[in-house]
Amino acid sequence: MTMTKIKLRLNQQQLELIDNTVRSGESNSRKDLIRRALREFAKANLPQPEKNQ
């Protein structure tokens, strides 16, 4: 897996939504939740590498 650093700019409402999601038990931290969201977005929107057969 390739590691890429990203920088997010979130407004107050977005931070509150993330914090509420973490509080509800969906994730352990903001960082974990954002990583999960990025993985799910990439899986749904980016071309997937072909597996060797």
Automatic annotation (TrEMBL):
Name the UniProt record assigns to this protein: Ribbon-helix-helix protein, copG family
Domain spans labelled Ribbon-helix-helix protein CopG: 6-42
InterPro entries, per the entry: CopG, Ribbon_hlx_hlx
Organism of this sequence: Bradyrhizobium erythrophlei
GO BP annotations, alphabetical order: regulation of DNA-templated transcription
